[in-house]
Amino acid sequence: MSLLNYNSKEIHCKIIYYGPTGSGKTSNIKWICRNTQDQKLDVFSIPLKTKPSTFFDFLPLDVGTIRGFKTRFHLYTIPGNKLFETSQKLLLKGLDGIVFVADSQKEKMAENKEAMEKLKQYLNEESLSLEKIPMVIQYNKRDLQNIHSVTQMRTALNHYNHPDFSACAEKGQNVFEPLKTLLKMVLTVLKGGQFQ
Ligand SMILES: Nc1nc2c(ncn2[C@@H]2O[C@H](COP(=O)(O)OP(=O)(O)OP(=O)(O)O)[C@@H](O)[C@H]2O)c(=O)[nH]1
Ligand SMILES: [Mg+2]
Questions:
Q1: pTM to 2 decimals?
Q2: From ligand 1's centre to the CA of 86, what distance in Å?
Q3: Cβ distance 69 to 10 under 8 Å?
């Protein structure tokens, strides 16, 4: 849920990178961090520099002024590891949009599906739905050999026709595009419109 501060004329939105462990969520926001104009920025990880992530990574991203309001997106990654279900639920609270990062490797399909089901369940618990939330799907690790086709990935994971992208987060391919698409959807909702 976006936060509007009328006194300081600021809008804050929360974007979540969600997906199974190792799918490439931290790699996405690290790439974004390295390739945004403000070189002083760094990804903030709690706890510091664990791999895989055990709580969250965070990156604030200023996108300029919209109708006189300084607009900032807060990008979070949620650890995919099932051991961290409590923090997964906690971090999802107040979200405005989701980048679902799927791992294209064949052996990871079950984990992708399980993560999508869990997300659906968490959203339902918050009276939200996968169908209506601004979301994009990134099929990551397209550079690897033993991967499912995009059609197979789409059939297995994209049941509500969310915008989807083939990516290689490690090399920065299709890292910005899904985020830009999502930010447009979030801003449309913020202005009171419908994104679909
Ligand atoms: N080949 C390949 N490797 C990738 C790609 N994206 C990420 N990786 C690698 O996959 C591993 C896991 O990436 P992370 O970004 O840490 O994954 P994560 O989704 O944050 O994982 P959790 O924190 O456990 O949820 C790392 O070794 C990355 O370098 C990609 O597009 N291609
Ligand atoms: Mg991570």
A1: 0.91
A2: 22
A3: yes
For ligand 1, whether the C-beta of 168 sits within 6 Å is: yes
Mean pLDDT, range 163-170, rounded to an integer: 98
- Print the SS3 string covering 65-111: EECCEEEEEEEEECCCCHHHHHHHHHHHCCCCEEEEEEECEHHHHHH
- pLDDT tens track for 48-101: 555 666 566 778 888 888 778 888 899 999 877 777 778 788 888 899 999 999
Higher pLDDT, 150 or 39: 150
Structural domains in the chain, CATH included, are 3-190 (3.40.50.300)
Protein residues within 5 Å, CB atom, of ion ligand 2 = 26, 53
Question: Residue 30 CA: which ligand 1 atom is closest?
Answer: 15
pLDDT tens digits for range 136-151: 999 999 999 999 999 9
Nearest by Cα to 162 from 141, 142, 181, 148 = 181
